[in-house]
What we know:
By secondary structure, the chain is of the alpha+beta class. The chain is 40% helix and 21% strand. It has helices at residues 14-31, 67-85, 88-92, 95-111, 130-155, 161-169, 175-195, 198-203, 206-213, 225-228, 243-249, 260-263, 284-295, 307-311, 322-343, 474-480, and strands at 36-37, 40-41, 43-46, 51-54, 57-60, 220-223, 302-305, 348-354, 360-365, 368-381, 387-394, 404-407, 412-414, 419-428, 440-451, 457-471. Strands 8, 9, 10, 12 and 14 form a five-stranded antiparallel β-sheet that branches. A four-stranded antiparallel β-sheet has the order 13-11-15-16, with no helix packed on it. A three-stranded antiparallel β-sheet has the order 3-4-5, with no helix packed on it.
Amino acid sequence: xxTEKKSIKIPMPWRYKRYYMFTFATIFTLVLPWITYNxxxxxxxxxxxxxxxxxxxxxxxxxxYLMPFLLMLMFLTIFGMTVVGGRVFCGWVCPQTLFRVIxxxxxxxxxxxxxxxxxxxxxxPDMTKAENKVKRVIALMMVTVISLIAASxxxxxxxxxxxFFPYLADYANHWTLIGTVLAVALFLIYDIAFLKxxxxxxxxxxxxxxxxxxxxxxxxxxxxxxxxxxxxxENHNKKFTKQKDLQAFEPAAECTTCESCxxxxxxxxxxxxxxxxxxxNCLECVDACTTVxxxxxxxxLVTWSSDYEIIDQKGKTKYFRPKVLAYVALLxxxxxVLGFMGGTKEHMLLNINKxxxxxxxKHIAEGKVRVDNSYVFLLQNTENKKMKxxxxxxxxxxxxxxxxxxxPSKPFNANPGVKKKKIVTLRTTDVLVSNDRKDTIIPIxxxxxxxxxxxxRSEKISVIRKxxxxxxxxxxxxxxx
Length: 481
């Protein structure tokens, strides 16, 4: 009878799926800053023009209260991903991992052949060879170009491309921008080519947070000790280096001690030791073990699963558990609040300040007195085009008489993004109140609005502001009659 082991079909490696994810993320982040709708970007935080663009809607810096909600969404999304899939963000989305894959797997291995193969990430290129020294310089030149592009792409979310390149051309007046690009690029060069995965283990704070977020159902790369055998003792000391030694103590152990899962690890850990701070859930070890065990006709000893399912063997992993549902509820709630607050964007900003003089009074005819109140209106057009604005006064109920605007006498132009100061005078010739003891403060409402192309009042671009009109006491009026 033949004892030949039949190999099983090996699925597409996780590494290839990560490459697809990295390709999509690269194209998305490079293209997104160039996409505009009605002159607005999907996301832009411009300190230069004091604007925030969000989902192709432009907000003024006075509406920067939206940013904390965006930050909460970002952190809750990352934390929620960690609760469900461990450090899947690190292995699949993080720019640090993307840059290292480009430098190590593409430039050093595929293009320059400094490394023999992608599956051996433990052995660094031999820099004693003159050939590798030259290739090292070429690799640094290539990563410099990549870093400058990445630094510029990062800045495009703060200085849009339509301003970025003219600013670079006018370098004499934009040294801050140029210095920022160079500083970010230099950091990336150091990080990608010299700091490497030490950034993940020693610099990134996320690795310290992950252990707090994990639970027994968190999915991560795990070595099945029940099938493979215990390679390490309870103190994490290695017990076996050869398969025959392992099987002498555990005859049923399936681990071949080939250490393919070790040599392929970009953070230089042995997944068989258990959960470790350096693991970024890249699943390279899963691919390696799947290939080796597949040739033996067995499933991989390293899988993307949970302690509950693999180590404790209590049953299937529970993905929709209370903690996960709580994160989903928070994300939905914050998204609704952000959408509501973003939907109430004001298309003009208006602040009203009363002048120091409370009022002015003048006799105009027999038994007629006019009362003026003056204000300083600070108005800003938050649209992308020049518009005309005007105001009206909405008096409170219970007041006999009307208050009119005498200055400005006609609509005025306001350029986009420029604060405009207008002195506004409100007037009445009617007896609004009759108080013998003191001046009366009358609450009024100012309605500011824009005029559309045909001169009609815009329903969309208008704001309401509360103000006060001071009417003098009866004795002041009687003196002038």
